[in-house]
Amino acid sequence: MSLSLPSQLLHLINPNQFSSTHSEGFVELLAGDLEAAERKLRRGYERTNRVGGSGPAASLAALLARALLRQGRDDEALGFARACREVTSRTQLDMRLKSRSVRAVILARQHRLRAALRLARCVVAVAETSEQIDSQAEAWFDFAQVLAMAGRRSEARQAAEQALDRCETKGNKVSAKAIGAFLANLGEPSAA
What pTM does this model have? Predict the structure, then answer.
């Protein structure tokens, strides 16, 4: 069996987690191979649902929603964001934030900007109370995207810079690069 480079790297980092579709899917998602991420995450999600595990199912559903969102498959992404929310316990703050953040981006794509902005702002506020720097970065970046879709480029730039700061703090170079590209696409800040 030939393994993708991200899967080979994961195997080298931690061979005991190699069978974890969650880890494999996450690595593929970071590597930008959205189809491979979807395939692995979907397989893990279906397997987890067969044996019954709400914690892993929530995490897999959140990642699968993100992979589908990045492919522009909003209806499917929304379905998995809902599935994540349905199996997430009150104590799983990170999963609750991830499902809501995906939903905010989808609302913006549907031109439901007021609801999208309200939800994305709420996700950021709650994420900031957590110690999950990657989740904070993701919330800020989703908020930046929603602001950009709403035509609020200056605020989008500020939110993206917050996301970038957290990625750099965490050492997440892959996400920092994506945020940098987003900032470049926004163009130069306007003079006040």
Answer: 0.84
